[in-house]
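Reminder: ligand-aware prediction takes two inputs, not one.
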Amino acid sequence: MAQGTCDGCGRAVTAAGGVANLWTFGDRDGSEGTGMTLEFEDGSTHLLCYPCIDALPDGPTAADVERLERVDGETSRLVGP
Ligand SMILES: [Zn+2]
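Here is what comes back for the chain with zinc ion:
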């Protein structure tokens, strides 16, 4: 287990295990912490909470992580038609 803050939104994150391969997190039953360290295709690693992971597009980059801070706050307003 690793503990830190989400690179996207800054909230406290408890990550399960080590570095996960991209998009292999599988089912989340709540017993594996509140986030995960992802290794991006560019080789950088980012500790992210699940809401931020969900907000990332396919093939995310460090720039997408920086965008998360805004996306996280806008999510509630983006829901709906
Ligand atoms: Zn986050």
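The mean pLDDT is 75. Helices lie at 50-55, 62-78. We will return to this case in the review session.
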